[in-house]
Design a protein that fits this description.
By secondary structure, this protein is mainly α. The chain is about 45% helix and about 5% strand. The longest helix is centred in the middle third of the chain and has 23 residues. It is found in: Cytoplasm.
Length: about 400
């Protein structure tokens, strides 16, 4: 899948004059070389020591590529991530409070080449494959544990009804979100106990931080792909402990993850969460990545719908409830104004890819490069005994 070339945000000079030559005291016209009425550029900075130029501070740090100068060609040439079986832990197991370990590009290199990262990404690929060519309404195996997890998320959705947004003037970051998030933190342990068997209750110390970090940051009142990755990490931890198994994967996507996305869109709409680390118009989406991976897998080998079908309003209206990719497009069109090609050029470009299989494989490679290999995102990621730092696991390949 072709990705857009890197975009330079800096505007080119708009002056119609050329630089002053050493022997000329006035600028000259670039066309006829005659004198112009404009003053020559100053030889010294116009800023005084008392009033220096303002320091620009971006709202979010720019993404740091790995390896240096990563571009679309590097993503295209990268191998497609493969599915892997999750290695279960051995009992008894000593759980530990997870902590942050990534601080630099070197740390990212250590992480992305580790067996822990490979197995975690392999788990996401397995989830993608489990929903391949399936509608959300298709039958699936749903265990009692899966039903409890879905009920848990529905409880969190209900809290948004109980905690209305505060009346404030600012566009982003409604402070009532902090009340919602505080309730989440206060009840997180009791929520985990609803799904944990007796012999795994000691895992609370390790899995609660992944869970509470899955729904945004209460200080910045924002949400992004890093938080979404934490939710995938929480599911991965449940899989390592054997609480969810491979037979549950389809329901894990079509029931649990779909409800999670419903919750997050509710939070984004009700509390106006700011996008965390948004790439602007050249990002896939302001908040999410995984729904497009899973959603493109759903549409693989579909008889009628092709990637270009996202521009067909009838298809979006009639099938977005069954396919996550289409649902994501509908939500973007709902919250963004103007031409789709202008506010979402990357998704517009992807619609020109001939098959959903190519879309899915390209998005998996992008997820590795644009999320798991980005320091500003992964510097908040946590490592413990279930997702190990420099972890080396004995891996089973499909």
């Amino acid at each position: 899948m072709e990705e857009p070339q890197e975009h330079n945000d800096e505007e080119p000079p708009t002056s119609s004059t050329t630089p002053v030559s050493p022997t000329c005291t006035s600028p000259t016209c670039a066309t006829c070389a005659s004198s112009t009425p404009f003053d020559p550029p100053p030889t010294q900075s116009p800023w005084s020591e008392i009033s220096p130029p303002p320091t620009y501070r971006p709202l979010r740090a720019p993404a740091i590529n790995l390896p240096p100068n990563t571009n679309s060609q590097a993503i295209i040439l990268a191998p497609v991530p493969r599915s892997q079986k999750v290695l279960p832990i051995s009992l008894p197991h000593t759980f530990q409070s997870p902590s942050k370990r990534i601080h630099s590009p070197d740390d990212i290199r250590q992480f992305i080449t580790s067996d822990s990262a490979t197995n975690f990404l392999g788990f996401i690929v397995s989830l993608s494959e489990s929903i391949r060519s399936h509608k959300l309404s298709d039958s699936y195996h749903e265990s009692t544990t899966l039903k409890k997890i879905v009920s848990l998320i529905e409880t969190l959705i209900q809290w948004t009804e109980e905690i209305p947004p505060a009346q404030q003037s600012s566009r982003y970051g409604n402070i009532s979100y902090r009340t919602w998030h505080n309730r989440l933190v206060e009840n997180s342990e009791s929520l985990m106990l609803l799904i944990l068997p007796e012999h795994l209750k000691s895992s609370i110390v390790e899995i609660v931080p992944y869970f509470t970090d899955s729904f945004g940051n209460s200080s910045r009142i924002d949400y992004g792909t890093g938080h979404e990755t934490n939710f995938a990490a929480w599911l991965y931890c449940l899989a390592r402990m054997g609480i969810v198994e491979e037979v549950d994967y389809q329901a894990l996507v079509s029931r649990v993850f779909v409800n999670y996305i419903e919750l997050m869109r509710k939070l984004q709409s009700v509390y106006n969460l700011e996008p965390a680390g948004s790439h602007g118009v050249w990002g896939l989406d302001d908040y999410h990545f995984l729904p497009f991976i899973f959603g493109s897998s759903q549409l693989i080998d579909h008889k009628y719908m092709k990637p270009k079908s996202i521009h067909n309003e009838d298809i979006l209206v009639n099938f977005s409830s069954e396919y996550m990719y289409l649902s994501g497009i509908v939500f973007i069109k709902k919250v963004k104004k103007g031409l789709f090609a202008e506010h979402s050029p990357l998704l517009d470009d992807i619609s020109g890819v001939p098959t959903w299989n190519k879309v899915n494989s390209g998005l998996l490679k992008m997820y590795r490069a644009e999320v798991l290999e980005k320091v500003p995102i992964m510097q908040h990621f946590l490592f413990g005994s279930l997702i190990q730092w420099y972890g080396f696991l004995f891996l089973f390949h499909d």
